Amino acid sequence: MSGNFSRTQYHLQSLATGAVFDDTGWLLAAPGESEPALIRAIYEKKQLELKGRGYGLYQFADWLPIHRILEGSCAPVTIKSERLGKVLGLNNLYITFSGYWPEQKAQMKTCSFKETEAYSVCARLEPNDQHILVVASAGNTARSFARVCSDNNIRLLLCVPEDNLDALWFDTPLNGNVKLVASRKGGDYFDAIHISNVAVELENFIPEGGAKNVARRDGMGTTVLSAVTTIGSIPDFYFQAIGSGTGAIAAWEANLRLIEDGRFGNNKMKLMLSQNFPFHPIYDAWQIRSRKMLPMDDNTARKQVEIIKAKVLSNRKPPYSLPGGLYDALMDTRGEILLANNDQAHNAAELFLETEGIDIHPAAAIATATLLDAVQDKKVGKDDRIMLNITGGGEERFKHDKELHYLEPSLIFDINPDSEEIKAKLKALF
Questions:
Q1: Are 14 and 36 in contact (CB under 8 A)?
Q2: CA distance 60 to 50
Q3: Cα of 55 vs its chain's centroid, Å
Q4: CA 401 to chain CA centroid, nearest Å
Q5: Segment holding 141, helix H or strand E
Q6: d(CA 204, CA 222)
């Protein structure tokens, strides 16, 4: 497959100024611009031409900013829901599933749509690149990047809260090119991000980039490409739980490309995005249509994060305010932010398992719970085309089928560690 692949042709565009420029390397921002803003990939091919299923995620390579194809990827799978749809009285409910569900040909070994990011971001690196990629994660992203980097010999530093280390399970042991460090118990994703920010000040360490990396967003956008190419048209509603909201931005951008393609309709999906009560900073800002995130006390935030079941939704500094960010996506799609608590998520996960026959992650259960509410509140109609983005699932099934290996941290840092201490210890790791 890789032998038949020629690099995707694309340019980059600043969403602050509209300036278009070449991707001269690991660009995460527009050159010479001081205002923080996302950049977007503008693809030469305006109509998406799918490669065969054997290409995995790279069947969508026309709209991925990549230089190569890596082995082992799997694309999201979209199915028309009969049983859950029937229970909810929905005639056009489509489930886009990223995870492990062998009966539906979903074979993501990390059971999360974060795998779509990892295969895209890592394929944006030039072959034989010797930089050390730095990733901060609350769990699923770390597992996905660890698997992809280990399998493809890409050097990786993971920064994860100690409370989330149980998320770093694998069906085979990882190679030594992947290193893990953690922020001590009681910290959260924000503390892990701090360690990663210090790491990228070191020579040869580069940030994965989060939402700023076009490859991450366009990798996640393959969930929408899967749905639309399966359905044959752009959905009316898009349901997903959010931590940073990067997946929702990606969905919006994919939607805009599909409108430009011309074959799937010209509507914008209404983004129906959800957070896990009581941690809901994006909900709070959006309720008053504030472009700026509202002030948040660190201790209060940490306590709220301890309560929520969907720990991956615990991002305190999402790409919300900047041009091209989540605020703009919500405004353009007339979107909504919805809330569900732990009990609602538990009940939604039970219903999904009972009707569709597969377990789902807590974040996906939050999204499903808000879909149940939206049906009850008549926010969606029985004939509306609805995409439910199940961002992770099949983990219990996978763990039952496989023998697991856990990645152990090389270092554990106290909360608010000294930057020079971090640098000295990380240098020694590599």
A1: no
A2: 6
A3: 20
A4: 25
A5: helix 140-151
A6: 30
The tokens for 243 are 């931590």
Task: Compute how many other C-beta atoms are within 10 angstroms of the C-beta atom of residue 218.
Answer: 29
Can you say whether the dihedral through the CA atoms of 136, 18, 119, 204 is positive or negative?
negative
Q: pLDDT of 372-410, one tens digit each?
A: 999 999 999 999 999 999 999 999 999 999 999 999 999
Inter-residue contact 118 to 152 (CB < 8 Å): no
Structure tokens belonging to residue 301 = 């935030």
Altogether, the residues listed in the chain come to a count of 430
* Strand boundaries in 15-173, DSSP class E: 20-21, 39-43, 77-80, 93-97, 100-101, 106-107, 132-136, 156-161, 169-170
> What is 93-135 written as a DSSP string?
EEEEE-SEEGGGTEE-TT-BTHHHHHHHHHHHSPTT---EEEE
CA angle 329, 330, 333 (to 5 degrees): 85
Question: Which residues make Cβ contacts (< 8 Å) with residue 149, sequence separation at least 6?
Answer: 118, 122, 133, 155, 156, 177, 178
Place of tokens 């910290």: 187
Residue 276 contacts by C-beta under 8 Å, 6 or more apart in sequence? 241, 308, 309, 310, 313, 339, 340, 341, 342, 345, 362, 363, 366
Q: Which residues of 241-274 are buried (b: 16+ CB within 10 A; e: fewer)?
A: bbbbbbbbbbbbbbbebbeebeebbeebbbbbbb
pLDDT tens for each residue of 172-207: 999 999 999 999 987 777 788 899 999 999 999 999
For the stretch 337-364, pLDDT in tens is 999 999 999 999 999 999 999 999 999 9
- What sign results for the dihedral spanned by CA atoms 400, 352, 343, 112? positive
28 C-beta neighbours (distance < 10 Å), count: 16
Structural domains of the chain in order of their starting residue, each with its CATH number: 77-107+216-399 (3.40.50.1100)
* DSSP line for 183-237: EPTT--HHHHHHHHHHHTTSTTEEE--GGG-HHHHHHHTHHHHHHHHHHSS--SE
CA–CA distance, 151 with 7 (Å, rounded to integer): 21
* Residue 156 to residue 118: CA distance in whole angstroms: 11
> What are the beta bridge partners of residue 379?
none
Which amino acid type is present at position 99? G
